[in-house]
Design a protein that fits this description.
heterotrimer, A mainly alpha, B mainly alpha, C mainly alpha, B: mainly alpha, Four Helix Bundle (Hemerythrin (Met), subunit A), C: 3 domains, two-stranded antiparallel ribbon
């Protein structure tokens, strides 16, 4: 295998797209709130990948800065989101996303 | 070599992703997510972003996922019962996904020329801690400070939300 | 030197404000003082101003009008309307009448209205009326005159429906205002045409310009303007065809009938015609209309007056008839005679009404003359003052009415002899019905059930003063005073004077005959000409005719077409329909809010796909 063989860049991006779609799929088809949340994290990671790819492409570090901030925000969001899930669980005694539907109509 | 590494870890990432969606127990999904994050860290290295790769492992896999696992254990969430999907999701979900994916792939193909490649150890790739630190503390100083405030708010929010009701 | 003309109307306005705003908390003596005081001050200021302008002295004062310009009210391009007051010979006469007679009536009313509710409100309205009437008289342009014109119409409405809890007063108030409005429509159109023709509303400018125009032989611009002005005047001064409101205006308290519907407001039409005499003199056709309508109204109303039994109604028709005389005078060119008659009429008609009020007051509200009689013993002052007024209105030689009426009739003869003869017959009828009323009220046996008594001092003193003026007021030589203003008209000849006086005396004699010496005669006449009597007694069914042809269709049309058709169905339907439609749409859109997060996610992805399409594919091209 030639060591200097590079990887075509669009492969990275397609991988990112696939992971993103998997995240959406998880969001569509799973019932548990926490699993849905994890799918969201998956989507965020996919986006991070494409950011870094473009940072490499443009030979600038700005994309990675973005990634950095995305990570920070995701961490904060995870903390608060989980706290909300805890509260919802306390009130509704359920983790099924379909049963939290009091905003209906 | 790059190609092999890429393929291996890309496949691991996709498999873990699929596993996340397919598994019934939340813990299994959480562990799959850890796997995804790990392989992504390697891919970041391949893209010449060591700082980000390290941050991914430390923050994401090491802190956020641990938090997830804690909560899952705290809530004692068991396997998901099987309930029918909402009608809209059932009908439109898969087609939309397929369309979405296809569209994105097509656009990527159309936009990027095939000749661009990623080499590991590309000297022009900026990603070292020095580079990041330099830009972070000069050009992006304001967002940096703002995110620290954001984290503070998140801490406060989480504490307020999750504490016991006052008598 | 500034005469501060504005004080003349402002003081009554202040009286209105004080009595209107604080009246409820003020005691009756205070209200009285404010009301009478403001009019008295106004009267004194009029006298003082006229004195300062040299009116009471020798020489030829006020040869030109004395104008005071206050501020510009409306200014827009060619349009410039200012608030200007002016005093000339004509308005000097009117000012004295309005404030003088107005003061006497105010004094009378403080006693007459003592036992009525809403005391302060009455005097507030009365003062407001004085304000508007004075603005009307002092105005130096058509628009300001119109302000006063409308204002007195408003006060007339307020005062006619003073007893607003009963039906007849409120209906009458409405009737007066609405009929007036029709006249005002004519007046407004006339004003528009005046502006279009002359570019201004100022009397000075308009009349100077009109003087330069040729006399119109056919229906030209000036004729149309004058006819429209005449329409306005018929509304305000109760001439054919818009006189119908005045008899019903008797629903108001008697002082109101005296002040507004005898002495002042109704003469505003005559004043307006006299003021615009330059325009009328250049439109002879319009003058003929004025004279014709005036004469017809005078004759017509006199016939009705002969049959009525309500004492106030008799005097109301008498007012309409006498106003017809004034219009006749103006129409044949004897403007000064017309204004002279305004003054004498103010004296004796106000006296007639106030006297009637004294009678009504004395027999506790009874107004039907069939229930009166023999009151001479109980109310001598009322009796003999009314006698003086009746003499004056009949034109008995020497009284004020004699002088003014004969001037008019002579001028009419000069224009067309047949007018004179009709006027003479009307004079005879006037004398007849006025003495009929007097005899029915004060002679014979008392036919009523109350305890008649004389009126208090505050009522009898104004009566006496007016009686003196009615008898001697003719010697105030108004026509001579107004001569520089109006052109010369044919003077009287002796024969004409004797004939018209004779007609009056014959009328008096007939009245005595029918009601005192041979009381059976009236019944015989009414029996033999039953259908004629019914026609006249029912006012020729004019009110009924108007009701059927104008009022009913209008009301019915408004109700079905405009109210149900347009308003309820179309407008409400549209507005409500809009609301209902929105709600319907909202109901449908609401279904998208399923409450299920995953459905929302589907929409999100769908939307992002659309965006991708647009951005990506379009951009990639």
């Amino acid at each position: 295998m030639p060591t200097s063989g590079g990887v075509p860049m669009d492969w990275y991006l397609i991988l990112s797209a696939v992971l993103f779609s998997l995240g959406i799929a998880g969001f569509f088809f799973r019932r548990n709130i926490i699993t849905v949340f994890m799918s969201i994290e998956l989507m965020l990671n996919a986006v991070n990948l494409s950011f870094v790819t473009f940072s490499y492409r443009m030979k600038q570090v700005d994309g990675q800065i973005f990634t950095f901030f995305v990570m920070v925000v995701a961490a904060a969001e995870a903390a608060v989101g989980l706290a909300i899930i805890l509260t919802v669980y306390k009130n509704r005694k359920t983790l099924q996303i379909d049963e939290v539907s009091s905003m209906k109509n | 070599m790059d190609l092999v590494l890429f393929l291996v870890f890309a496949i691991i990432a996709v498999v873990c992703g699929v596993n996340l969606v397919v598994q019934t127990h939340p813990i299994s999904s959480a562990l799959s997510l850890v796997g995804v994050m790990g392989s992504l860290a390697v891919l970041y290295l391949l893209l010449g972003a060591p700082f980000i790769a390290a941050a991914q492992v430390i923050v994401y896999a090491g802190a956020v996922m641990v938090l997830f696992v804690f909560v899952i254990m705290l809530l004692n969430a068991g396997s998901e019962p099987v309930t029918p999907l909402r009608r809209m999701v059932k009908i439109l979900g898969v087609p939309l996904l397929v369309i979405f994916l296809g569209l994105v792939a097509f656009i990527i193909q159309a936009v990027l020329p095939n000749s661009e490649t990623v080499h590991f150890g590309d000297p022009a790739a900026k990603g070292s801690p020095y580079d990041i630190g330099h830009v972070l503390f000069t050009q992006y100083l304001l967002p940096f400070e703002v995110t620290s405030v954001l984290i503070l708010i998140a801490i406060l929010g989480a504490i307020v939300l999750a504490r016991k009701e006052l008598e | 030197m500034d005469q501060l003309l504005w004080l003349i109307p402002i003081v009554p306005l202040l009286g209105f404000l004080v009595n209107g705003i604080f009246g409820r908390r003020l005691s009756m003596p205070v209200i009285k003082t404010v009301a009478i005081g403001s009019v008295a001050l106004s009267f004194l200021w009029v006298v003082k101003t006229l004195f300062a302008l040299g009116v009471f002295g020798a020489g030829s004062p006020l040869s030109a009008p004395y104008v005071e310009h206050y501020y510009t009210w409306m200014q827009s391009g060619a349009l410039n309307i200012g608030v200007d007051f002016a005093v000339d010979r004509l308005s000097a006469v009117m000012l004295m009448i309005v404030t003088g007679v107005g003061l006497l009536i105010h004094i009378y009313a403080t006693s007459y209205m003592e036992h009525e509710g809403g005391y302060y409100r009455f005097f507030a309205y009365l003062n407001l009326f004085m304000f508007f009437m004075l603005v009307l008289v002092l105005a130096e342009n058509f628009v300001l005159l119109f302000v006063g014109w409308e204002g007195v119409g408003l006060c007339s409405y307020l005062l006619i429906s003073f007893y607003f809890l009963e039906k007849w007063p409120t209906d009458s108030g409405n009737k007066a205002f609405i009929v007036n409005r029709i006249g005002d429509f004519g007046f407004s159109l006339a004003m528009f045409m005046i502006f279009r023709q002359f570019g201004s509303f100022d009397f000075q400018k308009v009349f100077t310009a009109a003087n330069g125009m040729p006399v119109e032989a056919a229906y030209g611009t000036l004729t149309v303007i004058c006819l429209l002005l005449l329409l306005g005047a018929t509304g305000k001064s109760a001439q054919i065809p818009l006189y119908v409101w005045l008899p019903d205006a008797m629903a108001g308290p008697t002082p109101v009938s005296a002040l507004i519907h005898a002495a002042t407001m109704v003469t505003a039409g005559v004043y307006m015609v006299a003021r615009s005499h330059v325009l009328f003199l250049h439109a002879p056709i319009a003058m003929d209309w004025v004279a014709g309508i005036g004469l017809a109204t005078a004759f017509f109303a006199a016939t009705i007056g002969m049959t009525q039994f309500d004492i106030k109604k008799v005097y109301a028709y008498s007012t309409i008839s006498q106003l017809g005389y004034m219009f006749l005078g103006c129409g044949v060119g004897a403007f000064s005679a017309g204004i002279f008659h305004v003054m004498t009429h103010a004296f004796f008609k106000a006296l007639l009404f106030l006297g009637a009020g004294a009678v009504i007051h004395g027999i506790h509200g009874e107004q039907d003359m069939r229930n009166m009689g023999g009151l001479r013993k109980f109310m001598p002052i009322a009796c003999w003052t009314l006698f003086a007024a009746s003499l004056a209105i009949s034109g008995v030689p020497g009284t004020s009415g004699f002088f003014s009426k004969d001037e008019i009739l002579s001028a009419a003869y000069g224009r067309a002899p047949w007018m004179y003869w009709v006027g003479v017959i009307t004079a005879g009828m006037t004398a007849f019905y006025v003495f009929r009323a007097w005899i029915m009220t004060f002679f014979g046996e008392y036919r009523g059930h109350a305890h008649p008594h004389e009126s208090p001092l505050l009522m009898t003193i104004p009566l006496t003063i007016l009686a003196v003026l009615s008898l001697l007021g003719g010697f105030i030589n108004v026509p001579l005073w107004l001569k520089p203003l109006f052109p010369e008209v044919a003077t009287q000849t002796e024969t004409l004077v004797w004939i018209s006086s004779a007609a009056g005396l014959i009328g008096i004699a007939l009245a005595f005959l029918c009601y005192m010496w041979r009381p059976g005669i009236p019944d015989t006449i009414t029996q033999s000409a039953r259908w004629l009597y019914n026609l006249v007694y029912n006012k020729y069914f004019v009110d009924e005719a108007y009701n059927a042809t104008v009022v009913e269709p209008l009301v019915e049309g408004s109700r079905t077409v405009l109210w149900r058709g347009m308003d309820a169905a179309v407008i409400d339907g549209a507005v409500n329909g809009l609301g209902t439609r929105s709600r319907g749409i909202g109901n449908v859109l609401r279904l998208a809010q399923s409450g299920y997060i995953r459905s929302y996610a589907v929409w999100v992805v769908f939307g992002s796909i659309v965006l991708l399409f647009i951005v990506g594919l379009a951009g990639a091209r």
